[in-house]
Amino acid sequence: MKTFWRILGLGIIAALWVASGTCSAQKVVLRMIGPEDVNGAWAEIIKRFEARHPDVQIKYISGPWSTDDRQNMYLRSFLGGDPIEIVYMDVTWTAKFAARGWLLPLDPWFSPGEGSAFFPGPLKAGYYRGHLYRLPLTTDVGVLYWRKDLVPRPPRTWRELEETCRRYAHPPELYCLVFQGMQYEGLTCNFLEFLWAAGGQVLDEKGQVAIASPEGLSALNFLRKLRLKDWVPKAVLSFQEQHTLEFFLKGRAIFMRNWPYAMRLINQSPLRGKVGLAPLPSRTGAPAPGTLGGWGLGIARGTKAPEKAWAFIAFATSAEAQKILYFKRGWLPARKELFRDPALLRENPALKDLYFLLERARPRPVHPQYPRISDTLQKHVSAVLAGVETPEEALKALSETLKFIIRGSRENYFRRLLLDYELKESLAHTLFFSAVSVSLEFLLGLLLALLLATPFPGRWWVRLAVLLPWALPTAVMAMSWQWMLNNPFGVINDLLLKVGLISHPVDWLASPEGAMWSAILADVWKTTPFVVIILLAGLYSIPRELKESLEVDGAGPVKRLFYLTLPLLLPFIRVALIFRLLQALGIFDLIWVLTRGGPADSTRTLGLYLYDLAFRYDEVGYALFLTVLFVFFLMGISLLIVRLTTLEYERRP
Ligand code: GLC
């Protein structure tokens, strides 16, 4: 009887297995990466699509908010040989992805006649060398939000902006303007608007560098002035979109530069009805163009079922889906006709003004080397805002570096090594970061290990608390530090102010020194437990009799520490030191999440530079060359540590 039930059970399991296999074999699974699906906009689109295409399953992978981070996720999937099928792309990604051959042209499915339904800018951004690779889904444009209840009208010129700031702003309670000043893609968008507002440009019509101009200088000077006068808070150097909006929602600024999605969230806040939308002010008074942004969809080369992927793209870019994205997320449609849709207009009458602004939105420079161009702009603009470069110095450096990027490097790797300024700079940051954080970790680690080796009540709980940070994923803890160190929302400033250690909030992440020390602090917090674990193991291995005999001989605790504990701990110190130094020298994740190398490249370590070279700048050869040299350097360091920490008695056979 028992055997019968067993066979029956196995039979059922096998049948279920086969059935599930055949079901999933029939379904085509297509993945895509997007930002967190707040309000379930994508879930709704996918549900409707799957109901009409039962043979397709769309898997929405929830990624970070930042465009740079999501681009990296796609890059990794392409380079790793398992391309994410549906490519959910920012407006600037097409040239690079298409030039690398990672996308399928959409021309076989999309007839050019259908293009007239979309805004021309976002559609054009999907073309590379005459082929369409990305169909627009949403569109974005940089706009000025202004407090209708605080000032009579939005400024049209920079001069009017200055006058309004002078008259109405009273920092630190009420600043004049906030924008996205962290060293990331958002800063490029913000800076370009200042540059265009002054009448300047990065590249001219022939693709030559044209930034070194009186207009370029005037844009940087104006930015510097806004900062120096304290009309813009220093904290903008650590602000992305959500930080900017948070600051504005708290009523701390009169004007905010952001994307149109923010209006929806403003309308759900106490500021509802008090905020207007306007074009960005310009130097001359002619309305300045906002940066063109927005997202679209493409298909990764290597996708097994491109037809199905296209079916999804066609649906997701349809008016039906774009409406869902608008109503659930506030993202503006890329289809022009929706700006006349009564339902949308009822919800947001400002759509009419946005239509006008969108038509005049200006794209960022289109170039396969765009990521590098953008990184260079971010670095120097961030340096001007942080006050570490004058506008003249920044403009000169910008122009020269951009010319170098456009021309392409022709030097051989060894010669380039000597000329590579970014390498020298990032190496210096890496060495400083490693030396300081590892020294602090050892000092603290030793103290904690000695403490935890001595019995006291509740020792297990203290041990657990000390070791906990080591167990947390670095990216998660870096994100928490980013918010904790943030000014004005961070808890750290709050605590320090309460206990009276500081008299006014510190902009931890907004100054070069502050950002470096913040990274060191986060690293020490996270990795000291590792040193503690190893040293604790070492302390337990020291025979008790030795300690006792020294005690009998009259040696006090200090003598015992230097003559017994430390020499016997040396092999453990060696292991921990090698591990920690190698990890610190190769630091990447913590800094990438915390500061992204900014401000003004002040926390850009070698790991970040190598990553940029290989994955963002298409310089895999040079990156590998540097990596090999770095590996030799690390081997040398390890050997040196072994040599310096091996005592005579250990060398004896
Ligand atoms: C928005 C825009 C995008 C831009 C990004 C910068 O998501 O739509 O085009 O690159 O912001 O942070």
From TrEMBL:
Keywords: Cell membrane, Membrane, Transmembrane, Transmembrane helix, Transport. The keyword Ribonucleoprotein does not apply. It is found in: Cell membrane. It comes from the Bacteria. The chain crosses the membrane at residues 431-453, 460-481, 515-540, 561-582, 620-642. The keyword Membrane applies. Residues 427-641 form the ABC transmembrane type-1 domain. One of its GO terms (cellular component) is plasma membrane. It is a multi-pass membrane protein. One of its GO terms (biological process) is transmembrane transport. Belongs to the binding-protein-dependent transport system permease family. This is Extracellular solute-binding protein. It comes from Thermodesulfatator atlanticus. The lineage of its organism: Bacteria, Pseudomonadati, Thermodesulfobacteriota, Thermodesulfobacteria, Thermodesulfobacteriales.
